[in-house]
């Protein structure tokens, strides 16, 4: 079952509500841009590639919901809805990229009906492209893993962060598919536990050996020689840094200290070579995410928190970036069309 897709019969967007996993597998089906925006902000649908798909379909839903408006009002309404979607999560480039790609396609049309049809086609194209590129990322990355290895991963960069297969977990799945003996250590990834709730769920379902560890155990296990490689996803990659779930930088520093390869798996479209680290907003999330877990109060009232959703890892700590175009190695500068530095 795909993480997010278009239900042609009901003309609705449908996606797995990841806040309910692993206890319940519940899907959301909606035509509402507001409901989708709320779902993105609550991480019902999450993960950079999945956000790109969600953003694209969000523009299509906007076109559908404003069909009764005349062209000028229609354009204003769709642009307004796109801005609302864009504001839900500022760090992952894929959300903005998906929204802008479908919005540009829709606004080239002369009528609301034509705009909706074009937007839906473009959003569906993004969905299918994501499936293909995750498999390419997996195939390229699988070559980098030893025949028998233990891989540490952080957060969830699996099928649940994409349409299917995954980026970091796509590398694991592709390596297993070609016969490699891969075990995974999945960092729980506080505060929302994407690693324990989602990555462990995915790998257990695929019969891929997985153990969940506290985020704070990773350095200890690296020092004990229990980790052969680290593979993580990315939300944005600028020429100077990888933006990924908070805690990624900690793993990169420790991997470097222990001479463990540190790989980032991401679509080439995640590279944002036009900006630098200091240009990008890191999403700050609520106090509630730290103060309460499973309905249990974990902090005294009144104590403030610092809860950034992402951190940045200097590219000098990244052994290779595994993309759908091939494997990139440091220094990660603008690639020419057929750059010989890209290993395929
Ligand atoms: C395949 S990239 C997934 C990427 O997205 C996650 O963030 P979030 O769960 O807040 O959407 C995390 O950074 C993952 O590496």
Question: Which fold does the CATH topology of the largest domain refer to?
Answer: Rossmann fold
The number of helices is 10
CATH 2nd-level architecture of the largest domain: 3-Layer(aba) Sandwich
Helical coverage, percent range: 25-40%
Largest sheet: 7 strands, mixed
Instruction: Indicate the structural class.
Output: alpha/beta
SSE succession: EEEHHHHHEHEHEHEEEHEHEEEEE
| Spatial strand sequence of the major β-sheet | 6-5-4-7-10-14-15
The CATH class label of the largest domain is Alpha Beta
Number of domains: 2
First-last Cα distance: 29 Å
Average residue-wise pLDDT: 96
Q: Over all CA atoms, what is the radius of gyration?
A: 20 Å
Characterize the overall form: globular
Bound molecules: the ligand CSC[C@H]1O[C@H](OP(=O)(O)O)[C@H](O)[C@@H]1O
Report on this structure.
The protein folds into two domains: 131 residues, Four Helix Bundle (Hemerythrin (Met), subunit A); 198 residues, Translation initiation factor eif-2b, domain 2 (Rossmann fold). It starts with a strand and ends in a 16-residue tail after the last strand. The longest helix is centred in the middle third of the chain and has 31 residues. It is globular and about 65 Å long. The chain is built from ten helices and 15 strands. Helices cover 38% and strands 18% of the residues. α3 packs antiparallel against α4. A seven-stranded mixed sheet has the order 6-5-4-7-10-14-15. It is of the alpha/beta class. The structure holds ligand LNRAV4D5. The site of ligand LNRAV4D5 has 18 residues, from α2 and β9. It is an enzyme of class 5 (isomerase). Its EC number is 5.3.1.23. It comes from Methanogenium organophilum.
